[in-house]
Amino acid sequence: MLYELVCGRLPFGNESAEEDDIIAAVLEETLAFPPKYNDNAGKNLMERLLCKDPAERIGSRDGWQEVKEHKFFKMTGSKGDLFTQILGREMNPPLMPEGEEYSKEAYLSEKVSMSDIEEFADEEQLKVQEHAKAVWKKLDPEGQGVVQTEELALLLAQTDSDLNRNQIDALVEAVDTKADGITFKTFCAFLEQSDLDAHAVLRALES
Known about the structure:
The chain has helices at 2-7, 19-28, 40-49, 64-68, 82-87, 116-120, 123-139, 149-157, 165-175, 184-193, 198-206. It has 2 domains: 2-87, Transferase(Phosphotransferase) domain 1 (Transferase(Phosphotransferase), domain 1); 116-206, Recoverin, domain 1 (Orthogonal Bundle). With 207 residues, it is mainly α.
């Protein structure tokens, strides 16, 4: 990461797109620096960090302390090293933002085009979400928005899941903390907390 930050490219396999080619480059290529990069201390640190022999890499003998004591991190004209300066809040930032106010309406889009789960969830979570929506329609055919805890527990007990009735009761009660039924949101929370294959549970409820 240090090499990429200061040199603007990968240390090995920068021109490669395939994972196997990058791995081969890591094993076989010789580390080189762009002509514009002339910090000898930085070069030495990265050469030692990226040494192909793990036993010879900096930090392999004395751990993190050996890395911290490298001359690259020494602050010229000040006491201690870079880490001491940062931890002691003794450094002046090179750039201070002018105080943007991101909460102002001018910075917000006129409308939200996707829900939080669509924006931040990974692909598998989205698949579970869509599957859960289909099953929920069967659990709540009248669209009341709530399924009673006892009803869901009974349905789960009749499936082929690996949970026994006591485990099912404990799980659904943990989700339905107010004892006022399970909503679609808490149903999804149940699927996340059950430590089971969510799709398998949903398929069992569909049958």
